[in-house]
TrEMBL record:
Alphabetized CDD domains for the sequence: HisKA
UniProt keyword annotation of Magnesium present: no
Reactions accelerated catalytically: ATP + protein L-histidine = ADP + protein N-phospho-L-histidine
First-level EC class: transferase
Cross-referenced Pfam families: dCache_3 (PF14827), HATPase_c (PF02518)
InterPro entries (UniProt xref): dCache_3, HATPase_C_sf, HATPase_dom, His_kinase_dom, HisK_dim/P_dom, HisK_dim/P_sf, Sensor-like_sf
Keywords from the UniProt entry: ATP-binding, Kinase, Membrane, Nucleotide-binding, Transferase, Transmembrane, Transmembrane helix, Two-component regulatory system
UniProt-recorded name of the protein: histidine kinase
UniProt-listed Enzyme Commission number(s): 2.7.13.3
Domain Histidine kinase intervals: 474-691
Gene3D superfamilies: 1.10.287.130, Histidine kinase-like ATPase, C-terminal domain, PAS domain
């Protein structure tokens, strides 16, 4: 009868909780879904703004590069001196850029020192004075290289100007390269973004010859490849609404983001209205969130239901246990020695204890012979081997109980006077002040460990030899470039000498370069000697200085492979260990990073960051990281992710042996994602904690 009543109560409580959980889940999903959408849209808006900014910056840099290249032209100086502007052939260059690059409308203009346009590659119009343009006037006045974004007679454009001087350093005028927003609009389109570049209406009167001839009222559309459907949409829905969007709006199936373009005087030039179709925005996280919350709710209901069942079962089990004494049978069924004690004397034990101590057949005899099992513990001169003594006010059992995260052992002689090793674990009996101590025989494991120590020693020596081989390859890399330079210079001097064209200045410069590279070879030899000094003594040395020496050791390899190594630290520290082993371990970590960067990254994305803060060393690269399935294995001997020609899997094993086994420091290896100079990278972070 009582059982049936309990079942009815469980069903009622479960249905009540189910109702509350379902209603709560519904309201929680509704509120969180709206916040998630806002977060995703805001993140998308920020990404659109960053993409737009980067594209504009790249276009400005490209425009400037073209201007600088075109200005270095002997024929340009001659034609400007003679005022033969009609012979300039920049229209041909514009056509070639249109044909062979993504920049389809590159305009080139020559302005004389008085501010008159004397040549335009895109039109025959010339002779007009352009000093009304502040950006051009500044270049003519200060005679400097500059870039700007401005509205002129023809369009809203990106401009780069470089002054033109003759060979007597007389100022002749300026060359200006003008590019448009069409390629930027095209690049945005490749990122699923349609854009309208809308010039502020205050520039309507300046645009005498509008390039695109597309207007919405007084607002000029500067990108010729603008989507006319969107132009009409903005026109029909009031253009003022879209240029005054604070950040973004969601409308008509689009996320519409506004990017305001300013000139160098912080005046509004234009508005880049970006349209992203909502179908191109990944909303999978919202769907996943709903599924996860529903699953959590279901799991919660299942847990609650089974909790009630477990409660009933536990109650029933207690009733059974109260009717019979099962404690001893449970203890005797264990394969390990189990002792119940207060740390001073034995309270109870299982049969395995008496099987081990042949001189005691029951608890009374054991108490008479030993009182406490701790009286049989042998002193093995090892902190992890427990003996009978005071542990800071706690007896041996209490000490083991309060340090359950440690792997304690005990050694006891059996009836044959042979030492047996046990692992020792302790737990507390509920509602009693007694401790359950479990002794598990690990004698075979201990003996095997002793046998393996010699193997480990040989393996460690082998790993150091492999590390030396890796370092020798680094030495070869560092020698190759200076030797090549010396050979090239010597050959050149020989040829010049044979042709009687070797001047004293060339001879001295060549000799200086040979001396510099010889010094680099000498430094490499010195570094090599320091790294492989056979002195195995423990010394005190500067942590930061040793790291810097190791970086210098890699200098030529970094230079050859376009790797930028950045070392930062907050404080130095003094280490007491073998300096050569420390340097070798750091070298092995850097060698792995170099390999990863060369294999996985373009030259402009190869970085190694070494940071020492709060006594924690982090060596992080941008090499795309390691397969998560392999992370747990890379410190094992003979495991490598490299090709057989590049490693045998012992480099990081040396690191593990030195820092963890020899110095007892902690090592962690993680795959990380991080930002550097507004760009996201991923790679491996090797962490060594010296605290």
């Amino acid at each position: 009868m009582t059982s049936k009543k309990n079942i009815y109560i469980i069903i009622l409580l479960f249905l009540t909780l189910t109702t509350f959980i379902i209603l709560g889940t519904y309201y929680y999903i509704s509120s969180k879904q709206e916040n998630l959408l806002k977060s995703i849209y805001n993140s998308t808006h920020i990404n659109i703004v960053k993409t737009t900014q980067n594209l504009i910056k790249d276009k400005q840099n490209t425009t400037l590069a073209i201007a600088l290249a075109l200005a270095k032209n002997d024929s340009l100086y001659r034609l400007m001196e003679n005022k033969d502007y009609d012979k300039l052939e920049y229209k041909k260059i514009s056509d070639e850029l249109n044909q062979y690059s993504k920049y389809k409308n590159v305009w080139i203009q020559i302005v004389d020192k008085n501010g008159k346009s004397v040549y335009r590659s895109w039109t025959d119009l010339k002779g007009d004075n352009l000093l009304f343009r502040k950006d051009l006037k500044n270049t003519l006045t200060n005679q400097n290289v500059s870039t700007s974004i401005s509205v002129a007679l023809f369009n809203l454009t990106l401009k780069a100007r470089t002054p033109i001087f003759d060979y007597n350093n007389n100022f002749l005028g300026a060359l200006e390269v003008i590019t448009h927003f069409n390629s930027i609009s095209k690049d945005l389109k490749e990122n699923n973004i349609d854009c309208l570049v809308i010039t502020d209406k205050k520039y309507r009167k300046i645009l005498k010859y509008p390039y695109t001839n597309i207007f919405i009222d007084d607002y000029y559309i500067a990108n010729k490849n603008a989507n006319m459907d969107l132009v009409n949409y903005v026109k029909n829905n009031d253009v003022e609404k879209y240029i005054n969007i604070p950040n973004y709006i969601v409308e008509n199936g689009y996320l519409i983001s506004n990017f305001i373009l300013y000139n160098k005087n912080n005046e509004k030039l234009a508005y880049i209205i970006n349209f992203m179709d909502l179908n191109n925005i990944d909303l999978q996280i919202v769907k996943s969130f709903k599924v996860q919350i529903i699953m959590v709710s279901v799991i919660a209901l299942i847990i609650i239901f089974f909790s009630f069942l477990i409660y009933l079962y536990s109650s029933h089990l207690k009733e059974i246990k109260s009717q019979e004494n099962k404690k001893q049978s449970i203890l005797d069924s264990q394969s390990n020695i189990i002792v119940i004690t207060n740390g001073e004397e034995i309270i109870d034990a299982n049969k395995k204890l008496y099987d081990f101590f042949k001189d005691a057949n029951n608890l009374e005899e054991f108490r008479k012979n030993y009182v406490c099992i701790c009286n049989t513990f042998l002193d093995m001169d090892n902190e992890f081997y427990i003996i009978k003594k005071d542990y800071g006010g706690k007896n041996w059992a209490e000490y083991v109980l309060n340090n359950e995260d440690k792997n304690f052992k005990v050694a006891i002689k059996n009836s044959n006077d042979k030492i047996t090793h046990f692992s020792l674990k302790a737990s507390m009996i509920n509602n009693e002040n007694y401790i359950i101590a479990t002794f598990t025989d690990i004698t075979k494991e201990v003996e095997q460990i002793e046998k393996d120590k010699e193997k480990d020693r040989l393996l460690y020596q082998q790993s150091k030899i492999a590390a030396i081989a890796d370092t020798l390859k680094n030495i070869a890399h560092q020698w190759r470039q200076p030797l090549s330079v010396i050979s090239t210079i010597a050959s050149g001097m020989k040829i010049q000498k044979e042709l009687n064209s070797l001047t004293n200045e060339d001879f001295n410069n060549s000799c200086n370069t040979i001396i510099d590279n010889t010094q680099r070879l000498s430094n490499t030899i010195e570094n090599f000697t320091n790294f492989f000094n056979k002195d195995d003594s423990i010394v005190r040395f500067s942590f930061v200085e040793s790291i810097k020496n190791t970086i210098n050791f890699f200098d030529s390899i970094f230079e050859k492979n376009s790797i930028k190594c950045i070392f930062t630290y907050d404080n130095d520290m003094i280490l007491d260990c073998n300096k050569n082993d420390f340097s070798q371990a750091i070298l092995n970590i850097l060698d792995n990073s170099v390999y990863a960067l060369i294999e996985n990254k373009q030259e402009d994305e190869r970085y190694i960051f070494i940071d020492f803060t709060n006594k924690i060393l982090q060596i992080k690269d941008t090499g795309n990281g390691i397969d998560e399935k392999l992370l747990s294995k890379i410190l094992e001997p003979y495991f490598t992710t490299k090709h057989q020609a590049f490693g045998v899997g012992l480099g990081l094993y040396v690191v593990q042996e030195f820092f963890v086994k020899n110095l007892a420091y902690k090592i962690d290896i993680k795959n990380v994602t991080f930002d550097y100079e507004n760009k996201e990278y991923s790679g491996t972070n090797f962490i060594i904690d010296f605290n």
